[in-house]
From TrEMBL:
Top-level taxon: Eukaryota
Organism (species): Brassica rapa subsp. trilocularis
Name assigned to this protein: MATH domain-containing protein
Residues annotated as signal peptide: 1-23
Cited Gene3D superfamilies: Apoptosis, Tumor Necrosis Factor Receptor Associated Protein 2, Chain A (2.60.210.10)
Keyword rRNA processing: no
MATH domain segment(s): 59-192, 212-340
Amino acid sequence: MDSQQRSLCFISLAFLFITCSSAEFLIQQVTQGRGTENNSSYSLDANLGVTRVLRDERPSSKIVTIAGYSVIKGRGEPYESSVFEAAGYKWRIVLYVVGNANDGGAGYISLYVRIEETESLPFGWELNNVDLKLFVHNPKLNKYLTVTDGALKRFNGVKKESGFGQLIALSTFENTNEGYIVQDTCSFGAEILIVKPAEVQEKVTFISNPPDNVFTWKILRFSNLEDKFYYSADFLVGDRYWRLGFNPKGDGGGRPHALPIFLFAQGFGPNAVATNTWGAVNLRLKNQRSTNHRQIYSAAWYPIRSGYGVGVNNIILLADLNDASKGYLVNDAIIFEAEMVKVSVTNIVSV
């Protein structure tokens, strides 16, 4: 222990037996935080599992402002705030301005929250999954130093208090260049939330070769088709309706020399969970005289909105299509086929 720490410990003990002359100072307590714009900038510093984050937003549960820090500087006994409500329970902030020596806080600010009015709680009460963040305001940066260890807290009849013995080093806190004390005023805060474990989860399953996964579309009078997109009827595979689409005069980089084919995702089936949908498909232009089909494989996440298509601009050159000996255009008709080889199905299930 260095000389500075020994001095601070000596002062803390001395003040337990000495009654100081009263002094006037103002303690302002604010229990309702006001929101700010969601344009926070962050800086991080981790130390022994504790994370310190600078954020813009005020703490949501409680703020205590001390206008007169120099009056209480060096006092060993804690300051206890008024009772405030957060997450449906009553609490106090407990502040040690020279650190809680029993919690390794010598040379630091120590800050805690303590659950109050527990006599009204049922016998054997226990409060779990409490997300606790404690704060030190930095007026110079107009930000709040947010201190947390990421662990959910548990309160019960034996353990009613939780916080950080080493919230911030006094050497940093009292350094005027750091900006935590301005005009002898400083502020601390708390944010208390109860994390309710999820009872359900969204489960995405990939189904290979789902039922009714082959759709055939025969287009008649091909030579009379106009320069526009044509669409098949909708067909249901998995949780979603799909359709085929093409322009007989070509599309994109294949225009005007090649025939395109696309698979479009449409609306959802009854009782389906509307999410992005995985669709893997074999798109075919059928050869009507042999098994020499033209085929491409396509796989993609299809967004929730309808009308998003994935495919190819060139499943066959129009010159080959119009060559009667090739067997793709027969009696002025072509046949497309979509074989859905894998789709995703989403369900909401219990954890």
